[in-house]
């Protein structure tokens, strides 16, 4: 089949999310100016540069109590910092619990029973038991086409790695099985890896 998004796909569900998969999940934590913590997952997330290390996530919806965006972006606009918490398969239910639309100011760490730890370089909480945490300072928020589409780009200024995820000097994803987002309500875990050597190496 072929379709143009402007004219519609004619299927029971939008296939776009299922085509661009798997996608890593950025579990974004923030702390507002009043000291209230927030935690929310975003499946439009990725690393985008090595030097300096840059990551991005996109928010595509808005909440009535946040105007043109959601809690994470609203807080980052004011504080200019956030933390990306890597999601392992074993934390899938906790991650999913934080996807609920809570009123502004509600602490999703507390609502989902998730242990916090302090970040080292920014004023923000992080998921204490996550395989890795990326402390980020805001580089830019870009208003993308579409009413509520915002892309947040951050520079990674601090990295936490859980000790059991380091094996022979490498960050080993098979130690924790990263959770990834597929289409619809589907997810997958990474449990097997293989290596390819580039022709120029």
UniProtKB/TrEMBL annotation:
A Pfam short name: Flavin_Reduct
Matching InterPro entries: Flavin_Rdtase-like_dom, Split_barrel_FMN-bd
GO molecular function: FMN binding; oxidoreductase activity, acting on the CH-NH group of donors, NAD or NADP as acceptor
Annotated coiled-coil segments of the chain: none
Gene3D superfamilies, per database record: Electron Transport, Fmn-binding Protein, Chain A
Start and end residues of each Flavin reductase like domain: 18-173
Name by which UniProt lists this protein: Flavin reductase family protein
Organism: Qingshengfaniella alkalisoli
């Amino acid at each position: 089949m072929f379709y143009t998004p402007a004219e519609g796909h004619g299927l029971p569900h939008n296939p776009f999310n299922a085509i661009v998969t798997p996608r890593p999940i950025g579990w974004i934590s923030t702390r507002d100016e009043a000291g209230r913590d927030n935690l929310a997952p975003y499946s439009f997330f990725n690393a985008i540069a090595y030097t300096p290390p840059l990551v991005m996530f996109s928010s595509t919806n808005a909440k009535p109590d946040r105007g043109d965006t959601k809690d994470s972006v609203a807080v980052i606009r004011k504080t200019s910092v956030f933390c990306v918490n890597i999601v392992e398969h074993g934390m899938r239910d906790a991650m999913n619990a934080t996807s609920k639309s809570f009123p502004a100011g509600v602490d999703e760490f507390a609502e989902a029973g998730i242990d916090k730890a302090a970040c080292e370089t920014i004023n923000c909480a992080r998921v204490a038991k996550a395989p890795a945490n990326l402390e980020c300072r805001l580089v830019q928020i870009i208003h993308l086409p579409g009413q509520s589409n915002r892309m947040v780009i951050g520079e990674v200024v601090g990295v936490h790695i859980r000790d059991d995820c380091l094996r022979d000097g490498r960050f080993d994803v098979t130690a924790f099985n990263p959770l990834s987002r597929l289409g619809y309500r589907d997810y997958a875990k990474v449990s097997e890896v293989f290596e390819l050597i580039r022709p120029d190496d």
